Amino acid sequence: MMRARLGVVLLVLASCSGQARSEDIFTLYRDSPLGQEMRIHVATFDSADGKDYNQENCRLAADLFQAQPGVIARFWCEMGHFRK
Fold first, then answer.
1. Which of 13, 73, 75, 83 is the most buried (most CB within 10 A)?
2. Residue range 2-27, pLDDT digits in tens
């Protein structure tokens, strides 16, 4: 079941590109078991479908990645393009 959900997330990630305004864009990050201060880029949600769509898909992806068995990294979303 989890693999099927992850497959859906990956499909959504692949389709989330477009002409979004910068305030409508959300980026998914994760930290690392080697350091919680690390900000590793996972995906950017910039669909032209708008802020709510991008935010919800980012949150859904974060939740699904976080729920995988054995995952110890933390996943979170932030508004805007990738920032180090």
1. 75
2. 666 655 555 555 454 455 678 899 99
CATH number listed for the domain at residues 2-79: 3.10.20
| Whether pLDDT at 43 is above 60 | yes
Q: Which residues of 18-55 are buried (b: 16+ CB within 10 A; e: fewer)?
A: eebeeebbbbbbbbeeeeeeeeeebbbbbbeeebebbb
Strand pairing category for 75-79 and 35-45: unpaired
73: left (phi over 0), alpha (psi -120 to 50) or beta: beta
pTM of the model: 0.74
